[in-house]
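USER:
I wish I could look at a protein chain and see how it folds. I am handing you a single protein, as its sequence and its fold in token form. As I understand it, each token names a local backbone shape. I hope you can help me see how the letters and the tokens relate. The protein I mean follows directly.
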Amino acid sequence: MFGVWAPGEEVSKLTYFGLYALQHRGQESAGIATSDGSKILVYKDMGLVSQVFTESALNTLVGHLAVGHTRYSTTGSSSWQNAQPTLGRTAGGTVALGHNGNLTNTVELLNLVRERHPELDGEIARGNTTDTAVVTALLTGDLDRTLEATAMEVLPLLQGAFCFVFMDETTLYAARDPQGVRPLVLGRLERGWVVASETAALDIVGAAFVREVEPGELIAIDENGLRSQRFAPEKRAGCVFEYVYLARPDTTIAGRGVHEARVEMGRRLAAEHPVQADLVIPTPESGTPAAIGYAEASGIPYGQGLVKNAYVGRTFIQPSQTIRQRGIKLKLNPLRDVIKGKRLIVVDDSIVRGNTQRALVAMLREAGAAEVHVRISSPPITWPCFYGIDFASRAELLATGLTNDEICQTIGADSLGYLSEDGMIASTEQPRSSLCTACFTGKYPIPLPEAHLIGKNLLEGDQTARELTPVFGDPGRQE
């Protein structure tokens, strides 16, 4: 997610490069909206950033402000209708909105849309089934209220994890939930401002990091500069899995470099689960920093035993189990000369469903490894995430109900060691009280509704899902 306000700059291309830096956060669809002060244009499609946008498409997206988004679906299917930014009407014009996170009171909010804006019922026929569309509809304002005033009234009603970048024809906005579950940062250009999901996106467009968007804060940027308001008090509970896996290693979150946090996780993992071996290898690329730390602390040489195809997407965010399983062999291949006859320590960041590790251990044995010892730089994942990561149900999580020895047997390793919760938290250098560890502990910092009122497919098949977002223009790729 990326937003820029910069008169005189090619904002569509800045947004393109910002999204390119954030591609790891979503690989299903991508979109950019721009405004020239009088009208908003949106271009979006299914696929990677590099597949969706061409030079000619970017050249049509003119203006001085833009918002962009790469989608990883956690509410609503992976479809063109659900691609972002979403586009809706306001009292004074149009709003384009991008969202990173997942709301937990979507049904309650949908009922509020029906109550406040029954006039939308006949207007929309787009099939958008996302919580983002619900928020876009709520931002439809009264004739005497600005988008900013409407946002200040709507944001406190939202529960769950959310970071928004949105805009009308003249102003860029950014907002972050009171817990600050997902990262959101503010940067400065020579002639403007940038907001982005990670500091790595600021780096790629040459923006200087200013600060985080604070939990519970709404920022507005226009020709009068930057202004800030609080819509809720801070109750910080940042996602610890950002440090473990989700964020880029060259990102900084809450003052802590992600790469160094992962290296420290590897050091602590070596202290907690030592083993006699000849070589430490990572599961590339996410296991690399922790493997470096493990090798450093253990004194066992670090090596590259696996080659990764950089053009294959992350396995755990693919839309079906069949694709995940088939994707693993496309993704990794062993260096037989390096691993043959060796006792290996294989370091990875996490085990979710176990498919990757099971296939990986078998692959290494087939390539001649004498022993395979798996080390994981986080605790066992035993609970689903309802705040923006698609871990699905407890039944799909390998560690649910199994002992460490049973998990080890399931993946076929000679031994298995997980980093402790204390070791993981200490590596982030954040207070335990300011982190969300729900996927490891089952302790959810934001209350959850009853099971039937939450889930990825909550709005799928609902006729009223067509009534969520007022969208202008022809239903083609460009609006």
About this structure: Residues 382 and 400 are 5 Å apart (CA to CA). Residues 121-125, 462-479 have pLDDT under 50 and may be disordered. The chain has two domains: 2-237+459-467, 242-436.
